[in-house]
Structures are given as C-alpha cells and as structure tokens.
C-alpha cells in the first residue's frame, strides 16, 4: 500500500484512512463488507466495486492532509466521504454513520430510543422536526442537521446516480504512547471509527473500519571523511584531505571516520568499508577495514586511524599504513571510506572524497661513454674499438617507460670544428645535435620498461676505424630520451673523441740490430725492443723491421727480423716468418712463444770507436756552431764546451773526412749532412763524418735557411757515449722543437735517413713521418742504413793492412 508523503522539519507524518485490516481486501464484519481506500481514485474504485456486487447504495471514505502533533500524539486530518446510488430502486431512509471516535458529527436524537444521539455524516430522510411532537413515533430526528448532514426530501438516497462527496475538516484522533514509539522512525494505523451505511430493505450493507495511518521518521545523515599524512610517525593532527606528494621510502598514513550528523539517533546500522585505488601490492581488491554499526546523534561512531592517541591499546588496521615503493611511482595512491545507507531515507552508497598521495616520476637519466677516453689516439686500418654506452638513473625514482637510447658515432675531418662537444639537453636527435661531421647510429633501442632506481644499464657495440687520414676524430656519444620526467628532450653525453694517429716505423738496413750489449761507457743490461704494428683494412699488417738479424737481451715485441714486414705481412705474430733471424734463447726446438722471442744475452762488448780517434790538447777544438763545409773542416777535432751544433752548407766533398770526438759535449745536428754524389775513383776519395759525443740531438729543421727546410738525411757515424741518463741519440729534439715537445702528426713529420753505423746508450725515435693509409702504412719515419762505404772507409783508415779478414765460414741460406 502506498503512503502519502508529507515531509515535516522534525518528523514525516503520513495518514491514510484504512478499512482494515487487509489492504484493499473485502473482509466480512458482522455479515457486512469492509474495505480500505487511501485516496479519491481508490475510493471511486471501491464504490464501483460495491455497486458491481449488486448493492443499491455504496460509499467509501479516506483521509487527507494529516498533521501529527508529537507533543500530544494528536493527529489532525480531513475526513472525505464519497457515496452514490448504484441503481434505481427503493432505498428507504439512507445514512452514513460514524460513532467511534466521534468520526461523524451529532445531528439529532432518536425519540424512540430514549432520545439516543445519532452521528451521521450523511443522512437522507423526510422525517424531522424541532420538537418531539412534530415527528412520528419511530424515526424522527427532531434536531436540525443542516450544518453537518445532507437533507433530502423524501425517502431513499439521492435522486440521481451521480457521485456525491463531503469533507469534514479538522477531525482528530490520538496515538497512544507516542513518546516511546517515536524514538525511532515508525508507522501506526490508528483506529478512527467504523463508518457504516443504513437504508431500509437492504441486508448487504457496508460497514467500514476506518484507520489513520500515521508514519513518522527520525532524520539522520552520515558524514564521512578521509585524511592522509606523509610521515614516518602517524599523527592525525598533521593529516589533510590531500593530495600530498610522496616518493619511494615514504610512509603514508590514512585516517577515516563516520559521524552521525543527526539530528536523531540512527535507527539502523550502516555498512562501511574503505575503497582503495592506485596500489601496486594488490590492496585495490581489498575493502578492509570494514564494519556494520550505528551511532547516536552527533557522535563519531566509526574511526579507523593509523594512530589512536586516545586509545593507545588499540591497534591500527594494517591497511591504514603504507610504505611507498618504486612500483608505485607514476601512480596516485588513494583511500576513502564508503557507507550505506547514507541517510535515514536513502539506501544508496555514499563515500568521502578520496584522500590521495601522488607519487610522481622524479628521475634524471645520465648518459655516458664509459670505456673511450676522450683525446686518446687510435690507429686507422680496420681497428675495432669496443664502445660501451651507459645510462645511469640518478633517481630518486624509476623512470617512465619507453625510453629511447642511442650510441652515436660522428667522424670529423682533420681540423674540422666539433659542435656541441660537451653535450647537453636538446629536442634534436643525436645526429641533428652533433653537427659538422659524418654521423651515424652505432646502436639504438627502446627500454620499454624504463630504468629502475638505482640502475645503470650498459650497451656494448663495436666501432671500426677504417683507413682514415691522420688527425681524423672518431667521436662517440650516448643519448637518452626522455631523460627526466619534466622534459621530452634528449640528453646527450659529451663526445668522447679518438684521434686517428699513426704508428711510425723504423727500418734497419745493411746490418743487424743489437740491443743490450755492453760498451766501454755502459755495462751490458737487459734491454727490450718494442715497436708497434699497424693493421690496414685490406693490405695486411705493417711494422718496423731489420733487414738482417736482431739480437736483444730482452724480449722483442713488434719488430721483425729478416725484412719480415717489408711490403706487409699477413699476420702480426712474430712467431714464424717475422722472427726468422731473431736470436732467441729457447730450449724446445721447433716451438715458438712470443713471450720468449729475444732474451738472448751476449758476452761481447761493443768496440770503442772513440779509442780509434784519440784527441789531446793539441787537437783542434770546435765551439758554438761547426760548419763542416762552410768552415772547410777536415780531419780530427775535439770540443770543450758542453754543447756544440754541427751543420753543413753543402755535401761533403770527395776525399774529406771529419771526426769530432767530444765525449763530454752534447752535439746538435742542425742541418742535413750529406756526402757528395760525384763519382769516386779510389777508397781515399770516400767522404766520411764521425760524431762521437755525450749526446747527439738531431734538429727537426734547418733553422735559419729560407723556409726552415726539414732535416731528412744525416750521413754520419753517430756514437753517443754518455752513461746513465746520457748517451742519447734523439732523432728530433732540437730546432723548432725540444726533446720534451709533445709529438703530433705535424711535428717532426719529415722522414729521417741516417747513413752510417750508430751506437748509443738510448735511441729515441721521435720522427712521425710515414705510417700512411693502406699499403703506405709501412712507410718508415726513420731509416738506419749501414752502407758499405762505411766499411770500406774504415778499412782504409785502419792502421794495419786495411784488410777485412774472414774469421769464420758457415753455409747460410741464399737469402742471407
């Protein structure tokens, strides 16, 4: 059954007049019919139903506009009665009466029944009067009822078949014990009266028990709040509704509560739980903490806090505390309390605002190249360079997903300007950022899962250095995008550049290379031979070599004997053809180990050339600059100064020899020294220069001559007799440079040929010529050529017979 809803400020009262107890049911009452109606439509329907059962008269009643006075329990309402004649026929006198609860007004008294008062809401009769004598002896109402009833002349009901109605306003009824009943919302059907109709000659009349349905409620509503705090120690006083910002390692604390805002106590329980979103640990599927409870007006009846300062014994729900992890980065962690019902008359779910913590990305990806040292050199010719790029996440959070990375190679021509060498941030991709050279990606990719924290990821790739010109810069950079959460730009590392260099070579012609043998001024010691080997892209391997044998007291590395590297070789291992004339102290016949090549001690001592050219105070002395041809020098000389420069304006003519024996002087060769190319007719015409000094330094250029021509040829015996750190022969340590000048491909870049025997405590090779690209990789920077003219001149100078005696004969291969 529906109720009329009439909201009040403190209570909601709903009144309906019921014929009960069944809703819209017809129940026999003392042989009559009873029914319930609650509005005009249903009243009409009830009358129609009664007429349909064959009744000649029918009525129905309902109430409207109910008002409950809670202080007294009185309900004031309007009683509405409808009636009609169902069919034509004798009805007799007709009345609708209501005695109980004084539902109908008093309209007179019956004189036959000791003047009993009658209460009729509707009455049709023609017998009436104002005194007893005016009526007959049976049914006469002598008091007027015009104020309440309906008078109709003649017997019977209405003289039509129309529906008639009457409203009686301001009727009242009282609810008993209302104070206890209204502590909670409720509904009560309050009996008003039994309304019956009467008309003569009809036994199937209607009697209606009429009720007032009074409903009242006690309004209340729930107010839910959720708060969040970022702090190691839970403290609700520091909480807010959020959002707050958090990072991995932070502790988040939530506080949820429900309050009954009243104005009345709750009359039912509220189901509540805590919703969660954004969590990476599975909490999103859990509704804990949760419960089912109620509370009084203005009472905080649910509170789930990360801390209970007033209840120290109470343990907080584990779902109110959370330690942020790297897996939460990029998420928003939220909790709220939800409840149902939200109000006394609303069964919907309600929820507080989410209390959230944003865990933003906060990272910095730093790219670098880890195994290429900027400024180092590299030799061309198919060299493979391993390049390792690294991306390090400096945090403090993991990175976003789908991060691009690239290892880039940029080739700059010699002398080219390198743009953006220091790297930096840019919206441009690597090859658009590093301009001015030939750029390509060596390796690239995308980290779909991003970078964790802490995290360093290496990326390895090989770079090939082809036959590039000396001075070419091969540069490498690592780049990453996006490198931070706040930018979509690339971050480029600095360029790590390798300078294509050369590995100059030295060739020994016409004689052996003997290292570590003792001399008059220096004792024998373990000395090594170490030279470099170059690999070309297509022409094989090139290195330094001796035309004949190599004898070394220490290991021999990189230098071939027997002209092994002349014209290139198919490999770089000295075992095999590259060391066939290198004396080696090895026991196992037919085996070779590169770590054992050389190491051949010798007991012989180098002959003392200085002893063959003794000087004394009577020997002419040189000082300053000695110009062999310009000063027309010839014969034996000495020097008394610490330094002497030897030059020659032209070729040494036939028949002239010059020996400078200056064991305590550092001699600088300041120009080319060459022998004449004229035809010679006798041994006596062979020109020869012998320089014996503490140190012999060869200049790079003939300073003073027009254009400072390079010094490229020294036809002379070079004998450095100094001991300890002295006894140096330096092939390029004077002129426009010094012995400590750093070498580049543009410094000391002229090939030097020394025609004559040399002996030294230390041989310092500083020429940078040769070592070109491809087949030119074997071009030497220095050539030491022991020509036959030195032997022949020496025999003629010999104080003996001038013979070269044969001391031993041994069959050797034709090559030798």
SS class:
mainly beta
- In helices, the fraction of residues equals under 10%
Which regions contain 5 or more consecutive residues with pLDDT less than 50? 1-35, 130-139, 142-149
State the end-to-end CA separation.
131 Å
Q: Biggest sheet, open or closed, and with what strands and sense?
A: 8 strands, parallel
- Average pLDDT over all residues: 85
Q: What would you report as the Rg, rounded to the nearest angstrom? A: 62 Å
Structural write-up:
With 816 residues, the chain is mainly β. Helices cover 4% and strands 39% of the residues. It is built from 5 helices and 50 strands. Strands 40, 41, 42, 43, 45, 46, 48 and 49 form an 8-stranded parallel sheet that branches. Strands 23, 25, 26, 27, 29, 30 and 31 form a 7-stranded mixed sheet that branches. Strand 7 and strand 8 form a beta hairpin. The longest helix has 13 residues, at 40-52. The radius of gyration is 62 Å and the shape is rod-shaped.
């Amino acid at each position: 059954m529906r109720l009329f809803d009439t909201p009040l400020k403190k209570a909601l009262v709903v009144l309906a007049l019921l014929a009960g107890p069944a809703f819209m049911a017809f129940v026999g009452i003392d042989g009559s019919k009873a029914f319930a109606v609650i509005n005009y439509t249903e009243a009409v329907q009830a009358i129609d139903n009664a007429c349909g059962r064959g009744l000649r008269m029918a009525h129905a009643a309902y109430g409207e506009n109910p008002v409950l006075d809670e202080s007294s329990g009185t309900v004031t309402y309007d009683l509405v009665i409808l009636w009609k004649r169902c069919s034509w026929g004798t009805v007799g006198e007709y009345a609708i009466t209501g005695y109980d609860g004084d539902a109908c007004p008093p309209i007179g008294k019956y004189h036959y029944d000791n003047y009993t008062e009658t209460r009729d809401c509707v009455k049709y009769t023609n017998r009436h009067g104002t005194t007893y004598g005016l009526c007959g002896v049976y049914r006469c109402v002598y008091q007027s009822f015009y104020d309440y009833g309906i008078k109709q002349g003649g017997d019977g009901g209405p003289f039509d078949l129309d529906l008639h109605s009457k409203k009686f306003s301001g009727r009242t009824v009282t609810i008993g014990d209302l104070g206890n009943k209204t502590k909670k919302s409720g509904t009560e059907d309050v009996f008003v009266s039994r309304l019956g109709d009467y008309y003569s000659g009809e036994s199937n009349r209607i009697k209606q028990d009429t009720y007032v349905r009074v409903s009242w409620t006690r309004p209340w509503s729930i107010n839910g709040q959720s708060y969040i705090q970022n702090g190691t120690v839970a403290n609700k006083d520091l909480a807010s509704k959020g959002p707050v910002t958090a990072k991995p390692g932070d502790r988040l604390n939530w506080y949820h509560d429900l309050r009954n805002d009243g104005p009345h106590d709750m009359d039912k329980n509220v189901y509540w739980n805590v919703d969660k979103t954004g969590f990476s640990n599975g909490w999103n599927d859990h509704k804990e903490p949760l419960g089912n409870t109620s509370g009084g007006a203005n009472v905080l009846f649910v509170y789930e806090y990360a801390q209970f300062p007033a209840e120290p014994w109470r343990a907080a729900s584990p779902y109110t505390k959370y330690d942020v992890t790297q897996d939460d980065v990029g998420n928003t962690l939220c909790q709220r309390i939800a409840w149902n019902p939200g109000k006394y008359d609303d069964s919907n779910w309600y929820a507080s605002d989410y209390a959230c913590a944003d865990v933003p990305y906060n990272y910095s990806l730093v790219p670098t190249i880890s195994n290429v040292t900027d400024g180092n050199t590299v030799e061309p010719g198919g060299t493979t360079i391993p390049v390792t790029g690294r991306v390090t996440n400096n945090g403090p959070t993991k990175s976003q997903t789908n991060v691009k990375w690239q290892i880039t190679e940029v080739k700059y021509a010699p002398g080219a300007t390198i743009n953006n060498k220091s790297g930096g941030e840019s919206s441009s991709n690597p090859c658009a950022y590093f301009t001015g050279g030939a750029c390509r990606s060596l390796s690239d990719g995308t980290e779909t899962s991003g970078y964790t924290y802490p995290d360093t990821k290496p990326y390895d790739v090989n770079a090939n250095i082809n036959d590039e010109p000396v001075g070419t810069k091969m540069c490498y950079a690592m780049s990453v995008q996006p490198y931070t959460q706040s930018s979509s730009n690339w971050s480029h590392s600095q360029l790590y550049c390798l300078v294509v260099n050369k590995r100059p070579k030295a060739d020994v012609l016409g004689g052996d290379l003997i290292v570590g043998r003792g001399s008059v001024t220096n004792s024998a010691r373990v000395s090594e031979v170490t030279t470099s080997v170059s690999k070309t892209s297509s022409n094989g391997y090139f290195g330094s070599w001796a035309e004949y044998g190599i004898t070394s007291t220490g290991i021999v590395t990189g230098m071939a004997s027997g002209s092994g590297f002349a014209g290139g070789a198919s490999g770089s291992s000295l075992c095999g053809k590259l060391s066939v004339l290198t004396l080696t102290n090895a026991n196992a016949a037919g085996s070779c180990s590169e770590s054992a090549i050389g190491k051949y001690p010798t007991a012989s001592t180098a002959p003392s050339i200085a002893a063959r050219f003794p000087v004394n105070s009577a020997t002419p002395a040189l000082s300053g600059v000695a110009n062999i041809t310009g000063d027309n020098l010839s014969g034996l000389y000495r020097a008394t100064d610490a330094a002497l420069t030897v030059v020659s304006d032209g070729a040494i003519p036939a028949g002239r020899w010059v020996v400078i024996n200056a064991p305590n002087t550092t001699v600088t060769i300041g120009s080319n020294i060459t022998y004449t190319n004229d035809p010679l007719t006798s041994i006596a015409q062979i020109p020869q220069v012998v320089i014996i000094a503490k140190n012999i330094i060869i200049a790079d250029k003939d300073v003073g001559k027009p254009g400072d021509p390079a010094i490229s040829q020294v036809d002379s015996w070079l004998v450095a007799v100094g001991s300890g750190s002295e006894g140096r022969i330096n092939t390029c340590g004077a002129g426009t440079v010094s012995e400590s000048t750093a070498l580049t491909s543009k410094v000391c870049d002229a090939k030097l040929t020394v025609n004559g025997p040399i002996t030294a405590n230390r041989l310092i090779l500083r020429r940078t010529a040769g070592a070109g690209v491809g087949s030119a990789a074997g071009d030497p920077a220095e050539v030491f050529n022991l020509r036959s003219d030195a032997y022949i001149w020496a025999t003629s100078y010999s104080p003996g017979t001038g013979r070269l005696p044969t001391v031993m004969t041994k069959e050797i291969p034709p090559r030798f």
